[in-house]
Amino acid sequence: MNNPWLLRIVTLTFAILLFVSVKSDLESDHQNSSNNAIDVLRDVPVEVYYDDENLVVTGVPDTVDVNIQGPANFVTSAKIMKDYKLFVDLRELPMGEHRVAISQENFSEKLKVRTDPVYVNVVIEEKITQEFRVDLDMNESLLAENYVMTSSVEPRTVNVTGAKSVIQSIGYVKATISSEKGIDKSFEQEASVRVLDLDLNKLDVSVEPRTVNVKVTVEEYSKEVPISISKKGTPKEGLTINALSTATQKVRVYGPRSVLDKIDRLNVDVDVSKIEDTGTISVKMVVPEGVTKLSQDKIDIKADVTSAAPPSTGTDEAEKEDEDTAAADELTEKSFAEMKIAVKGLPEQLASSFETPTDGIISVVAKGTPDALKDIQSGDISIYVDAQNIEVGERILPIQIDGPSNVEWQTSESEAKLMIKDA
C-alpha cells in the first residue's frame, strides 16, 4: 500500500464505479418521472351511509373533485373505468355535529388519491313529519282591472318531512300560481308546494303530496248596498200613498272599486202618479254612473194606498177612527249609532281585524210604525258577519242583522272588509 501508483489506480476505480452508479439512478428517476401523470376527477358522487328512516343528515356535498397521481396508465384506467367509490359512513355516530373524512374505495394502490375537500362537517338530526296548511301564493296584480278573486286549495294540508330543526323553522307552505297579467276568468290548475322559512328561503324537506289542486274564482269587483225608496211625482186625486216597501233589502252593484266605494245605498224612485191602488208594482232600477251592472234590473215595490172617503155621512167617531188608523200606519225611523259588528264562526286558529268599516263600527236605521219602534233598544239588535270556512287573506263579507221582524232595517255599510291571519 506504500506504492503510490497502486493507490492512484484504486482511487480511480472507485471514482468510475461511483459515477456509473449515480448516472444509473438519475436515468431511472427520470424514466419514472416521465411515466407519472396527475389528473382531476370532477364531480364524483358521494354516498352517505346512515339510518335514513329515522335520521336526517346535512352537510355532505352531493359531489366532490378527486385529485389522482401515479403511473399514466393507472390514471387513464381510473378515468375510463370509473369503478371507484366515495362515501361517508355515519352509521356508528350519534346525533349531533361531526367532522368526518370522505373515504374512497377501488382506486389502484399505485395511485395517490386526495379528495377536495378531505373532511366535511355534518349534522345528524332526528327526522320528523308534521302537517301544514297550504296557502295560495298568487299576485293579485295579475288580475284584470276591477276584478277580485277567491280561492280554494285541495288538499288543504300536506305532510312535510325533514330535520327537526328545519321543520321548526318553517314559516310558509305555499302553492304558487304564475300567469300572465289580465286574468278575468276563473280557472283551475295544479300547483307545486313550496316550503319556506320566515325569510322566504326554500327549505330542504320532502312534501307529500308535492302538488295540490287550486281553484281560483275571478269576478268583477262588487258589493251589496241597501235599497232606499223615494217618492216621485204627485198621487192621483183622492189617493193617499201611506207607504212604499220592498222585500228586496239589498242589491249587488258591479264596477271599479273607486266608484263603488262612494256608493252607500241605491236610490229607487217610484212615480206615485201612476199608482192607482194598493198592490205591487215593478220598477226599473237606474244604473248609477260608473257602475257596470246591477245584480237585477227591476225591483218589486209594494204600495199601501188609501182612497179618499166620500162626503161625510157617518158620525164623528168613525172619522176619528180613520184618522187614528192612518196615524198608526205612518212609518217613522229610529237610528242607532256606534253599533259594533261581531265576527261569528271564526276558526280558533285564525284572527281577524276590520279594514272597513273602521273598527267594525256602523250605524243602523230602523223603519216602522211608532208603536213598533218605541220599545226597541240597541241591545235588541245583533249585527255580525259570518266567518265560517273563511281563509287567510283579505276577505269581504256581507253585514247581517238580527232584530225585531216587524220593522225594516238598514245599515250604513252593507259589507265589511276583514284581514284574516293565523292566530
Description:
The protein is α+β, with helices and mostly antiparallel strands and about 425 residues long. The chain is built from six helices and 31 strands. It has helices at about 5-35, 70-80, 165-170, 255-260, 315-330, 370-375; strands spanning about 35-50, 55-60, 65-70, 85-90, 95-100, 105, 110-115, 120-135, 135, 145-155, 155-165, 170-175, 185-195, 205-210, 210-220, 220-230, 240-245, 250-255, 265-270, 280-285, 295, 300-305, 330-340, 340-345, 350-355, 360-370, 380-385, 395-400, 400, 410, 415-420. The strands form eight sheets. It has a five-stranded mixed beta sheet with strand order 6-4-1-3-7. The model is unreliable at about 30-35 (pLDDT under 50).
What is the strand content? over 45%
Per the principal axes of the C-alpha atoms, what is the gross shape? rod-shaped
Tally of alpha and pi helices: 6
Low-confidence runs (pLDDT<50, min 5 residues)? 28-33
- As laid out across the biggest beta sheet, the strand order is 6-4-1-3-7
Tally of strands:
31
The helicity comes to: 10-25%
Mean pLDDT, rounded to whole units? 84
End-to-end CA span: 110 Å
Describe what is shown at a glance.
About 15% of the residues lie in helices and about 50% in strands. The chain has helices at about 5-35, 70-80, 165-170, 255-260, 315-330, 370-375, and strands spanning about 35-50, 55-60, 65-70, 85-90, 95-100, 105, 110-115, 120-135, 135, 145-155, 155-165, 170-175, 185-195, 205-210, 210-220, 220-230, 240-245, 250-255, 265-270, 280-285, 295, 300-305, 330-340, 340-345, 350-355, 360-370, 380-385, 395-400, 400, 410, 415-420.
